[in-house]
Amino acid sequence: MRNLHTCLDFRQELPLPCELGDVVRFAVDSDAGVLYVAGSGLGVAAYRTSDCELLWFVDLRERAAAAEPSLEAAAVAAFDHCPELEALCLALSTGELLLLRGPEGVAGSGTSSGSSPEVEEVGAVEGGLAAAAWSPDGELLALVTCTAQLLLMNKDWELLSEVPLLQQGGTGGAALPARPAADATADHPQAALSPDSVSITWRGDGLFFATTSLDSPDAASAVVRIWDRQTGELHASGEAAVGLLPTAAWQPNGRHLYVASSMAGPAAVDGEAEVRAPAVQGGAPPPKLPQSDDSEQAQMAAAEGIAHVGAWKRELRRRQAERAAAGSGNGVAADRPAAGAVLLYERNGLRHGGFELPAAEGSCIEQLAWSPDSEFLAVVLREDWEHNLPQQVLQLWHRSNWHWYLKAERRYGCCPALRCAWDAQAPLLLHLATADGLYQQLQFSRQPTVSRRGTAVVVDGSTLLLTPLRHTVVPPPMCAAAAALPAPVSCLAVRDFGEDEAIAAVLSDGSLALLSCVEEDLWEETLEEQLEGQPWQGLGTPKLLPQRLALDSPALEAAAATGSGGIQTAAWVSERRLLVVASISSSASALLVELEVDVAASRATEVAAVDRDVPRLLCCASRPAGGALLQQHGGGLLLYSPGGQLARLPPSAGFPTACPHMVAMPAEAAANGPAAAAALGLSPRGQLFWGTRQLASDVTSFALRHSGTGGAYLLFTTRQHQLHTASLASLADGSSPLLAAGGQAGGAGAAAAGGQHGMQAAGQQGFRAAMKAAMRPAGGAAGAAVDVTVRSIEQHAMLVAVPPGNVEAILQMPRGNLEAVRPRALVLPAVAAALDAGEFAAAWELATTNRLDLNVLVDYRWPRFLDQAAAFVEQVSGDPDIADLLSALEEGSTTAAGGLYAAALLPSPADNRAQQPQQPEAQQTGEGLAAELLPAAGSQGGEQGPAGSKQTGGESGKVRAVCSAVRRALQSRDPARYLRAILTSHAKSGDLEGALAAVKEAKEEALQVRRAAGVPSAEDGLKHLALTTLDDTLYAGALGMYELELAYMVVAHSQKDPGEYLLELQRFAAIPDIHLRRHAIDIHLRRWERALQHLVAAGEAHFGAALGLARDKGLLRLLLKLVEGNKERQRQVNAAYAEALEAKNMPEDAGLTYLAAGKVDDAIRAYRAAGQWRMCFALAARAGWSADQHRRLAAGLADELSAIGRGAEAAAISLEYLKNVDSAVLLLAHAKEWREALRIAYGNGRSDLVDTVVAPQAAQAAAAALEEINDNIERVAKYWARLRQLRQRRDALEAALAAADAESGLPSRQQAEDVLDDAASVADSLISGLSIYTDHTHTGATTVTSSSVASTVGGKRRGKAKSKGKSKTNRIRAGSPQEEEHLSRHVLDLAPSAATCSEVGQLAELLVLLGHQSDAALLQQRLSKLVSEQAAAAADILAHPPPALALALPQQQVAALQAAAGPAGAAAAAALLAALPGVELQQRVAAAAAAVRESHWKWDVLREAPAVPPLPAGIGGSQGSGNGAAQAGGA
């Protein structure tokens, strides 16, 4: 569907030296931008391609006149530029091989016209050379001598092989053995080849090459031979064909070899003459193979397979034969006979079809050249022109969908010879040179030609294929209507102005043709109307006949008279004005000609011409408001207005780079765009621009939908094989996800039920999962936000058009066929518009046809649907349709923020009901229905949608509200008719019993009243219910209603075995007591609460069973409620409940329950187990226990409390109930309750206990505390020093990396750092295996230590006892990336706790009391030092937090910061945050300081004394000396 558009038509006359002669060959160095020309006078010249300035010239004949007289008659056999050799390679017909190197390299850019290159003769071949060609990799040179020898040489000019060219081989890759040269030439005694009789072409991978040669001067057809590069031997000979020419080109992708032929017709192209030739000469029939009865069936099957494989080939040949007979095949007009054909050959030499060339009679193919991407074949033909003057014709052919299209044609009158070559680097850039020195560059771009109404125009030579895609989708080469033009199309323009479409075509002969549509884009009707007034006189399919316009343009005539460039492109600027852009030879400007098209007079008259200040143009596009946009090669835009007014648009309206594919924006979108950007453009590198703003990258094609539901839309495809859809309104206001991306445009199973019915349950769940997966995209949760603006497409599919007023996008597949897809981003606005208009049937049709999530019909403008349920049921009246809607309901909203379709729908207004369509009075239920169905509708309406319905409970959410509203509407119409939908509403809202009750009611009504036709029966409803509910669930629901008949009905209409369940139902029915029967059913259904209720209701005789059931199932609390009023039963239940609480290790609750049951001794036992000793003594006193029982209870409690660490309470029991002071003081000392121990000892007159018990325990505690404090002081110092060392290394490495980045010119590493990536700094530190945290160099598995590392394991070394429950997350490992974080956490953990400070304070107080004031002072001062040093280290960590403990922003704030401040601003904010401590770090430091501050542990008298000031000289010298010594000793 894509045509070739001319982006550049640069032509200039080369300043040819007289000695050069006519141009016979040329080569292009794309890297250096140099054109090399070889002339018939054996001269070589170099020109700059940009301005055709002569760089140097060398006359080979003059240089070698004395040394090589044979060069006087030499001709150029081959001429090529070799990048590997950095030289030009010439092969002369006399056998010489020459290399030419420029004075300053091949480019010669620094040379002048007076300089000459270095000429080196690298070899000479006896007998002369006829052809030569280098392999694609530049390693091998294939040569054909005039004596029919094939030589292979490498780039060092070593001969690798020499074989006879004229060998006879078989096809299919089976070559005959090579014969000696004498034998090979025996069949061709006059084998004298010339440069015009042989050609060489290489396959793209260089493994094979082909020769096409006229083996003798009188040969009527050339012979194709395919050679193997590795062996130099003949691989295959081409299948013989009449009229083959020695012109061939191998497709670069290696698919086919293309050979020119002078014969035309189906026999020449398809080989029918050879296929239909008799297999045996003499007319004898071919022999028949013996057949047997066993093989007859196999042979028939094989014949059918062969017929199937070849069916399309026979059909293709038949159609080509018909077109040939009609004179209109392949776009060839009846007055343009075929000039020849191009035949396709496989590597094995077999023919594979071909195509015919339309040209004048007597024309001949001179050259074939494939584009580097294997898409376009350039064909150069020679034909006779006026007055028998020669004319050269250039044709560009493209193959798609098994059809060959003539995409472009250029004619060169009075031209004896033309050569062409594709550029090796620039895509679709063609270089041409004529014999008289005209050099031309043709740059093409591929893009579809589609009108704003969606009419696609495909160029096929002199035929235009017209397809209005808005009405029909027909893939080319088929079309809705075809137009036959007098000559092939050079460029065309589609008119979108006015009511009817029109197409203006500039033909290759310079004339202008016009096609007009009778009404809008109805081209088929146009053809029918033409046939009514003018019957089709030709053969074949009727075609539209254009109106040929007489061109009255002095400017164009003057340009043509001076030999200036032809018409490059055209565009309509108004309904009757056509703008034509022509290139001017030898100039960097263009010519603009505005033509007034007079349809009635069949004339196009020039009304304005602009040739001043018009730069060279890339492309043009019509504007919807009138005029045209012209794009320069740099991306800037010009605005042409009718009347010859040309204005340059500001840079903000243009593109930052050249965009060959440009589309003018709709007027409203252009006005609201970025800085009034006027067009969308696609660069060759896949960048999609709207003005200077890049919307996406890696784009392969794009199209605009100019109008339709939801406004204008932009659609484009990417190299990731995705189709993106964006509203132009969202692009204009900046809300599109494309702008947030910055122009850088991602299996449901069900659990099987247990038992023997698990397979069936799994199958039903899989069926439902598949139904949901068809509506919701796979890979995401039901409520997850999925980008509906992106959809996957087939690889390499291209976007052709998006017809207006439609929801379809037309894609062309790589094979050439068309597919119409419906992006959900276009479907959803159409659904929303239908819902707003109250057209629920249309909305339902769109949603179901495009497999949307049906929740969108409910969620859109929620809760409006609740009030419109009756209208919806009236329009969508199908019972299965309504049931499908209810089955698809899910909690949550698809249209709210973050919903499935939120990105494709506009937000709802605050007042939904203000925009409701008017409904009949019977349907206008107002807010009452919504308030009744939605208790929390106030929090779910408006813009929020039903997203919060889950929080209101499943029974009062969206699903239940919609089911209730729809069920009411159905019941008000005809409940019997909508039985399936009503059942679905009950089941979906969780009311399975209500659904089964409706089935039962329908069954009872069917027994009483005869069912009407079309009304579903109860059995039908039950089967429908089984589609959405498991059979086991239905059976359990029927049993749960205690309806045995209904349960049997479920079994009978399901996939279950009725006999298996019949015994079970009979067993239930055999129980006479209704309560016991229901109890049995509940036990079967594992409904223990209901089973207990029915068992209690069965009577006192079953209380024991009820108590056992309650004990087993944990229902004792429920049983307590059921036996209220019966105190004896309550005591029994409480006793059992207390036992259950004891089994659960809840002794205190058990004691209370024993008290409720009246069991005091059991309550004392439970309270004792809970450690509640006060309650134990209270209950013992109440129960009247004896003194001995009290003592035994006290002794046991004291031991138990002491064992669990409650020594103070154990001491109180020993002192109060056992009167044992020794035990009490000892228990208090073990509990470190020093003050209480002193009080008890001195208060009871036992001061000896202070010396024997308290003092030794205090000494041990003080020693242990002092040792731990000293260890922690050492750890703090060691960890802090290591932290400072690591911080210095990290800062030094970051500075070195920043300096290296600045020196290399790379962006700052900080700008690329992710704010939330804590490991980013760690990754930066791991350069060449060197970590900033260690002095070790890691190389693989070996660690080489360069210097010692301070140990980070502080304190006293302990045994390596392993603890299974100990966490290793904060374990310090030297050199690890987490070492700094772990060191910081360990320093924070070394802060003394409040309990430690309080204990040290009491110990110091006790030590002073015992006379050890110096020890008390030492203990307090060491703790004070620990507190101060740890606080200083913590403050240092706060000032320089590690990356893992620094402040970080949440992901949402990071995204908002990047959107607001850009990447640079976000990086600066990240750098500031990295220097701030995190919340966790601040909280831990503050908590440690508060613990030390709130504990009373500092005694003023024990603080370190200040330094004693020195006495004046001469006073108390001895005392001063003593004081100084004492001070030194104290220090």
Could you give a quick summary of the protein structure above?
With 1531 residues, the protein is α+β, with helices and mostly antiparallel strands.
The tally of beta strands, per DSSP, is 56
Any low-confidence stretches, pLDDT <50, length ≥5? 105-113, 173-186, 272-313, 327-335, 746-765, 777-785, 908-944, 947-955, 1307-1368, 1517-1531
Largest sheet: 8 strands, mixed
Secondary structure: helix percent: 25-40%
Round the Cα radius of gyration to an integer and report it. Answer: 48 Å
Which range does the strand content fall in? 15-25%
For the largest beta sheet, what order do the strands appear in spatially?
A: 32-33-34-35-39-38-37-36
Rounded mean pLDDT score:
79
**Protein structure class:** alpha+beta
Envelope shape: extended
How many distinct helices? 46
Alpha-carbon distance between the termini? 97 Å
Task: Please tell me about this protein's structure.
The chain is α+β, with helices and mostly antiparallel strands and 1531 residues long. Helix content is 36%, strand content 23%. It has an 8-stranded mixed sheet with strand order 32-33-34-35-39-38-37-36, covered by helices on one side. Strands 1, 26, 27, 28, 29, 30 and 31 form a 7-stranded antiparallel sheet that branches. The longest helix has 57 residues. The C terminus is likely disordered.
